[in-house]
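Quick check before the chapter quiz. The format below is the same one you will see on the exam, so make sure you can read both the input and the output lines.
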Amino acid sequence: MSKLQKIKVGEKKVTIRMNQSSIYAGKYGTNKDLTLNDEYFDFIHLFNTYKRYVKSEHTVIEVGASTKSRTKYLSTYCNKLIAVEYFPDRLPKNFNNVYYIQGDWQRLSKYVNEPVDILVSSHCIEHIYDDLTAINETYSVLKDGGIAIINTPNRLRLVRSIIELFTGPRKFPYWEHFREYTKQDLINLIKRSKFKKYTIEPICFGISPARFQCIKKCPSFLEKYCIVWEMVLFK
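Here is the expected output.
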C-alpha cells in the first residue's frame, strides 16, 4: 500500500510517495525488539563500524531513528543518544539514555544545541531533498575529531542494473527517494561539502541485504554493483 504525502522543504512543498510495502515497512516505530539475527547485513556492518569508533562517554546522534531496536543497539555503547526522526507517526518514546526529537536533517543544528561525537544514519540520505545541506549540517554539529557513519543504496546495485537493461534508468524522485548514488556521486557530494577526509566502502552483493539473499562482503571487482555504500566522514 502506498500514499502520497507533501513535505515542506524551505518554502517549497514536494510530493513523495510513502510506500508501506517496502522491505523496511512494519519496523517503523515498532516496540518489538529485533535481534541482530533479524537484521539486514548492511545495518550489521554499519553497527560494527560504529562500535570501532564509539566510546562510553560519547554523545551520539542517530538520524532516521524510527526502528527502536536499532536505536537500542547504538545507545548501549554511548553515554547519550539523540534520536532524530522526521515523521511523527514513526517516532517512538524516550527510553534509557535515548532522547527523541522530531526534526529535519537539513536543519539539524537548530534542534541539537550540543556538539556530538558521532552521527549515524542508515538509509536516510537518499530521502533528503537537499543532501549537501544535510551533510554540512552534520559537519556543524560534530565535535572536532567527530565522525559520521552513513549508508545508502547503490543506484547501480545488481538487481537494479539488470532491470534497467530492459526499462532504462530509473527517474527520480521515486517512491520516498529523491535520488540514489553511485560511488562517484558520493565522492562528488563529499567534495562539495565541508568534509575533507572520508572513506566509502561497498557493502553486500546479491539481491538484497537480507540474510540468504546476498553475501556480506562485496568482491572488489564487483563493487560497482554492490547493494549499499557505507560512508565514514571525518571532521
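If your answer matched, good. Residues 2-234 form a domain with the Rossmann fold fold (CATH 3.40.50.150).
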